[in-house]
Automatic annotation (TrEMBL):
Keywords: Membrane, Transmembrane, Transmembrane helix
GO terms for MF: catalytic activity; molybdenum ion binding; pyridoxal phosphate binding
Name of the protein: Mitochondrial amidoxime reducing component 2
Biased composition (Polar residues): 68-80
Entry's transmembrane regions: 21-40
Entry coiled-coil feature ranges: none
InterPro entries according to UniProt: MoCF_Sase_C (IPR005302), MOCOS_middle (IPR005303), Pyrv_Knase-like_insert_dom_sf (IPR011037)
Domain MOSC: 280-453
Region Disordered, annotated ranges: 61-80
Superkingdom assignment: Eukaryota
Keyword Nuclease in record: no
Length: 454
């Protein structure tokens, strides 16, 4: 009778499963997959990912940057000197691609051309008396009137957001499965997202790889070393002149490596190219630089504006920053706006200085001739993080408050240009030294500077 009393619903309808029946297996799968997806994200490997298998990325991580707290009240009160009262090197920066984002380092090899990896490349656009399209075509004949002219943040402020990484060989990463590499590489990265569903997938992949602040990027791989003749022929590079200020500089046109997306990102309407400095055709520096007899060699530069090294004095910047009018767009002056190689503390009356030996055994006392003040253009108006250009500052205040050099009247000056001096050899190929953060600066000579125009 009990069997007969079993309800029809119990016999004819399936039992309803509880919420836990579905939730627990699903939660188990999710808990298992999340760590796996975190460690092995299902996203395509980038060029940078591949290089990390055999190389190490040059530079200081942002949390360890010597410049991270430069605008804090405590930093403003620092004198930047050691116990003996000597100025110290606060930071070192290199800019492998002119006008793109720099790399802060704790130690750098010093060469006659400046810090290693500095200003090896520059962007240039094709200029002509008649319109020139992005593919190099123009109206009418007269192609021989075209010329390449270097470009910077002055014309295209978004260059400030183009990131540059240098990867150097790491002997500790070579294994039986990975060949040892002796070549260093540069990776250029800029924000780019394809339209439609591809762009959505790129956005998701960037968030998985780099966290919530990650954004899709396009990468371009460039060699640090100057290409061989065979590589130049195979890759379709050409040797051409590029104008840097008033000089025509023989260099290597590597425009073949640039994607069209970069021109669109930078809003460059003319044809865009990337030039590699030719180490056999460096520009000799005269004007305020020491003579061959004084330095033991004729100072040379790659794609630097005028001199091998640019030094900024934090005390001078802090004093100037306190006088610059501020608004919502400009809260403080980041020293990186001025794109110097060496950042230290002291005044601008240096004529000759010596950096004493650092804590590393590879460093040694190194002398410099302080050639002249740095005459500023409007590039510091560009925010080095966002690429946004302020309408007037700090250019207006520079011209008003820093009109300090009779050789550059009504032109603001901030920072110093330097030439390294090497002892023990008169052969440029053997001239090198090492610099590092924390080295003390001994002032050997002080005096007045008068800028000599190009």
């Amino acid at each position: 009778m009990e069997a007969a009393n079993i309800s029809a619903s119990a016999l004819g309808e399936p039992a309803r499963l509880s919420f836990g029946f579905y939730f627990l297996p699903l939660a188990t799968v999710i808990c298992f997959l999340l760590p796996v997806l975190y460690l092995f994200p299902p996203i395509p490997a980038t060029t940078s990912d591949a290089l990390l298998a055999t190389h190490s990325k040059l530079g200081v991580a942002p949390p360890k940057s010597s410049l991270r707290d430069q605008s804090s009240a405590a930093e403003q009160q620092k004198t930047g000197t050691d116990a003996a009262g000597a100025a110290k090197v606060k930071a070192l920066c290199v800019y492998p691609i002119k006008s793109c984002r720099g790399i802060e380092v704790t130690r750098s090899k010093l060469l006659p051309t400046g810090l290693e990896f500095d200003r090896l490349y520059t962007f240039a656009q094709l200029k002509s008396p008649f319109p020139v399209s992005s593919d190099g075509g123009g109206a009418g004949d007269g192609r021989d009137t075209h010329s390449w002219e270097f470009v910077t943040q002055r014309q295209f402020p978004q260059l400030a957001t183009v990131k540059v990484d240098v990867y150097v060989p790491d002997a500790t990463k070579s294994t039986v499965f990975l060949e040892k590499s002796s070549d260093a590489w540069i990776v250029l990265r800029f924000p780019w997202r394809e339209p439609g569903w591809k762009g959505t997938m790129q956005w998701v992949a960037a968030k998985i790889r780099d966290g919530w602040r990650g954004e899709p990027e396009m990468e371009v791989l460039l060699p640090v070393e100057f290409p061989t003749d065979k590589e130049i022929e195979d890759r379709g590079y050409t040797r051409e002149d590029v104008r840097v200020w008033k000089e025509m500089v023989p260099a290597l046109n590597m425009e073949k490596e640039l994607p069209e997306e970069l021109s669109r990102y930078l809003s460059v309407s003319n044809k865009l190219a990337l030039f590699r400095v030719d180490p056999g055709k460096l520009r000799e520096v005269y004007r305020c630089a020491p003579t061959r007899e004084e330095a033991g060699y004729q100072p040379v530069v790659g794609f630097q504006d005028a001199y091998p090294l640019h030094l900024m004095n934090m005390s001078s910047l802090q004093d100037f920053d306190a006088q610059v009018p501020k608004d919502e767009e400009l809260q403080h002056l980041d020293v990186r706006r001025f794109r110097s190689n060496i950042i230290a503390y002291d005044e601008e009356s240096w004529k000759s200085v010596k950096f004493t030996q650092g804590t590393s055994k590879v460093t040694a006392p190194t002398k410099f001739q302080v050639s002249c003040r740095t005459v500023r253009c409007k590039m510091p108006n560009v925010d080095p993080v966002t690429g946004a250009r302020h309408g007037v500052e700090p250019d207006r205040s520079l011209r008003k408050l820093r009109d300090v050099d009779e050789g550059a009247p009504r032109m603001g000056c901030l920072g110093m240009q330097m030439v390294p001096l090497f002892e023990g050899t008169d052969r440029v190929e053997y001239m090198q030294a090492w610099l590092e953060v924390g080295m003390a600066v001994e002032v050997l000579e002080r005096g007045e500077h008068v800028y000599i125009k190009q």
